[in-house]
Amino acid sequence: MQENLLEKNMQRHNIDLSKYATKDEEAIRLNPEKEDVRSPFFHDIDRIIYSYAYVRYSDKTQVFSKKYNDHITKRMLHVQYVSKIARTIGRALGLNEDLIEAASLGHDLGHVPYGHFGESILNEISLKEHQGYFNHNVESVRLLMEIDNAGLGRNLTLQVLDAIMCHNGEFVMGCYYPKKKTKEEFLAEYQSTYHKKAMVKSLVPMTLEGCVVRVSDIIAYLGRDIDDACMLNMIQKEDIPEHIREILGIKNREIVNTIILDIIKNSLDKPYIKLSDEVFKAIVDLKKFNNEHIYMPSMTEEERTLVKDKFYRVYDYFLKDVNNENKESRIYQNFLNFKKEIYFQNTTKERRVIDFIAGMTDDYFEECFECTRKKDLEHNKKEVKK
């Protein structure tokens, strides 16, 4: 009797789901396991938020690095905004909110220090070292499958991992159709992202919930980045082109509300997630405005050159430590010493350093750079004495 009541309570969220929603019984784990009282996607939420990778969100750049203002968005806030927006859309459309929340909270775990600019440098290093393309969304999946939990991974469901891999909000679409996949097809796509440059742009979520997370990523940052830029006196809201303001609004809450309601109106009881042509065009134009007036000017060329130099120096520094098996190095003390043999079997020395850097917070990255600088100074002093 109690077991039936417990199961009923835990499954309450499944009542009246849309025929297009992903049901809990459809959940697939890469490695089958017996579930506890939690449903699979609900369990995935816990596995994500209790990971050390999730904790590191709090000091990772969203757009603006080294801006000393307590109200500027960090990566932690961004994923929470994505989760709330996506769950709002999901609830209105009768979709599985547990799947949506898990994917939303895990989607940016693979983001590197200094945001997208840092990602571009790590991609450059990865290609130079013959390690394939580096993309933060793929690294998020890699972290949850092959790095976290001592290299054993978290054994999340296929649907959550796929939604995370396919979330990239940089590529906005007017209509999102899910694409059914087997476990083998998902893994093939995952591996292809390392070798095919265009692969990351062609990824399509396997569930409608994954489509919601993808479009919610865009909704979450468009207006909020404008708020942050205004706070830093980079732009004024009146700088936004008038036709965009008329359609989407001028405040973040207006932009978010307009797009959410537009999606619900055009997607209710449909096998896709759709934006009206008018709102889609306004989003495209606003992304272009943000890119020209916020993202590109967020760092000066001098700052970009300096950060790029830091990435290369930190990478070279730790690769040397790995090659020399310097067990006193931070890469051993804070990363490799906590990995099981399976991690070493599946990764090159270069990839281990890339994984280590990708997981760093901005402040920890700066600490590591200072270590390289001090080592250089000590080396130079020794050379002078000679």
Can you give a write-up of this model?
This protein has 386 residues and is mostly helical. It has helices spanning 2-10, 40-49, 52-55, 75-93, 97-106, 115-128, 136-147, 158-165, 183-192, 199-202, 208-231, 242-248, 252-267, 277-295, 301-323, 330-333, 341-345, 349-358, 362-385, and strands spanning 175-176, 273-274. It has a two-stranded antiparallel ribbon. Helix 5 crosses helix 11, helix 8 (158-165) crosses helix 11 and helix 15 (301-323) packs across helix 18. The chain is globular and about 60 Å long.
- Uncertain ranges: none
**Main beta sheet, described?**
2 strands, antiparallel
Termini separation (Å)?
A: 82 Å
- State the share of residues found in helices, binned by percent: 55-70%
Structural class computed from helices and strand pairing:
mainly alpha
Architecture (CATH level 2) name of the largest domain = Orthogonal Bundle
Helix count? 19
Radius of gyration: 22 Å
Spatial shape: globular
Could you give a quick summary of the protein structure above?
The protein contains 19 helices and 2 strands. The protein starts with a helix and ends with a helix.
How are the secondary structure elements laid out?
Layout: H1 2-10, H2 40-49, H3 52-55, H4 75-93, H5 97-106, H6 115-128, H7 136-147, H8 158-165, E1 175-176, H9 183-192, H10 199-202, H11 208-231, H12 242-248, H13 252-267, E2 273-274, H14 277-295, H15 301-323, H16 330-333, H17 341-345, H18 349-358, H19 362-385
Antiparallel strand pairs: 1-2
Summary tags:
single chain, 386 residues, Hypothetical protein af1432, 2 domains, two-stranded antiparallel sheet, 19 helices, 1% strand
